[in-house]
Amino acid sequence: MNRSRVSQPTVTRITRSSSSQAKHTNPTEPQESVPGPYRKQRRKQTDSVLVQDLSQMSVSGQVFSPSEGKISRAGSNPGQASGSTSDQSRPSSRVGKSSSRGGLASVARLVKLGRCKNVVVVAGAGISTASGIPDFRTPGTGLYANLEKYNIPYPEAIFNIDYFSSDPQPFFSLAKALYPGAHRPNYIHYFIRMLHHKGLLLRMYTQNIDGLEKLCGIPDEKLVEAHGSFATASCHLCYTPYPAEEAKLAIIHGSIPTCSFCSATVKPDVVFFGEDLPQKYFLHTKDFPKADLLIIMGTSLQIEPFASLVNTVRSTVPRLLLNRHAVGSFERIPLRRGDHMELGDLADTVKRFAEMLDWNSEIEELMRSQETLSIPALVSCPLSKSGQTSCQSRAASEPGGNVETSRLRPGAQRAASSSETDSETDSKSSVSSNTSN
Ligand code: CNA
Predict the structure, then answer these.
(1) How far apart are CA 198 and CA 239, in angstroms?
(2) Which of these, 63, 145, 188, 303, is most buried using a 10 Å CB contact count?
(3) Rounded Cα gap, residues 386 and 257, in angstroms
């Protein structure tokens, strides 16, 4: 991974920042290899169908007051926002009364009609709070509200590469809590895997570093971990790779892993502010123009360049925001045509969405089978002195064995093998979804 803090005019470098430094522009047109006039005609047809279906912009759980030009959030008591304190502090989350559930239902209808075959999911820390991992910004429970113990000058310092260079301890203390191992994927992760299973997932772009997407069986080729992960580690200065498991053990035992080449501090390959995003992130230039549905889940859309990705789908493509409150361009009124949002607890919302799609029992079955597969793996792969499980050592010695993801989570091996099954069923699923529509 090529990382640098100096801006250079290359097309394949982009660094992470918490402000809106790096905005994406709207791609003009999808790059299809179809001759111009035919492409135009085909697009027009598709668009008009979508426009018909999405003629009603919808904000579920909210009421739009045109006279005030703002939306407000449902609450049991008029004049009082329900939900978290974060909701109360946001201008877009004021007072309101829940009415229609049109947003979710409209999008579910499109999916059932077979109009969404290239779904892009953009996700953040809110999809993992149900797994017990705090997000960043939720007041009270978010990591940023609980950073006093790290003794840092400002919350973002903990993920700032310059700060890390001078004092890695705050990040290492946090990393101990964040290291994959103690948490399980939840219903929301499995919903996304079900999108893949049905042959509808073009790609998932996640900002999360908890590895739960892989653990639930979303295959590597369908996943972009835009802010890196704990699965690999390297020197923060010269980028010499370092065994991730050794880095993990050092950090957990309170020592500082150092580079064998230049002696600088090693860190897991989580992308800090000021560091380059992984090359895989650039798949977005192909994916977003091709998407026919964008689902945005559990993110405050505060971190660039990731946040601006959501503005790079075609203007006719429906976008569904599932979050506790409005974020990004969804805070602006009027909403873009074809924008939908469903506000509230993500796990509840996703479950309702799955019920509308008649996927709920399949998801629950998938979760049951995945957990059953993972538990024996956890039991039968005790940690050796080197920190590797016996299963991981096996995987490492097998030709083509992928230890990168399974190194940290014994269950991940099972997840990987079940995702192979998924890939096999995908083609069948696509056909059956074609024929059923
Ligand atoms: P964030 O800024 O904390 O935003 C999370 C969003 O999710 C907020 O808008 C919340 O209101 C919303 N949310 C949280 N829980 C729920 C819920 N149960 N139902 C509905 N909405 C909910 O986090 P972002 O992901 O936007 O910021 C990106 C950062 C966070 C990335 O760089 C990550 O690396 C980082 N992060 C990741 C993890 C993780 O891997 N699980 C945890 C904490 C932080």
Answers:
(1) 39
(2) 188
(3) 15
CA of 212 to the centre of ligand 1 (A): 14
Q: How far is the CA of 35 from the centre of ligand 1 (A)?
A: 42
Is residue 228 within 8 Å of 209, Cβ to Cβ? yes
User: Are the C-beta atoms of residues 22 and 308 closer than 8 Å to each other?
Assistant: yes
Query: 216-239 b/e with 16+ CB inside 10 Å = b?
Result: bbbbeebbbbbbbbbbbbbbbbeb
Give the CA dihedral 210, 211, 212, 218, nearest 10 degrees.
150
Q: Which residue has the tokens 């559930």?
A: 101
pLDDT (tens digit per residue) in 42-72: 333 333 333 333 333 445 544 333 333 333 3
DSSP states along 193-213: HHHHHTT-EEEEEE---S-HH
Strands 241-242, 228-235: pairing is antiparallel
Give the mean pLDDT of 132-140.
Answer: 88
Residue nearest to atom 40 of ligand 1 (CA): 208
Mutate to test the pocket of ligand 1, among 136, 321, 323, 353 (most ligand atoms within 8 A of CB): 136
Cis ω for the linkage preceding 170 (within 30 of 0): no
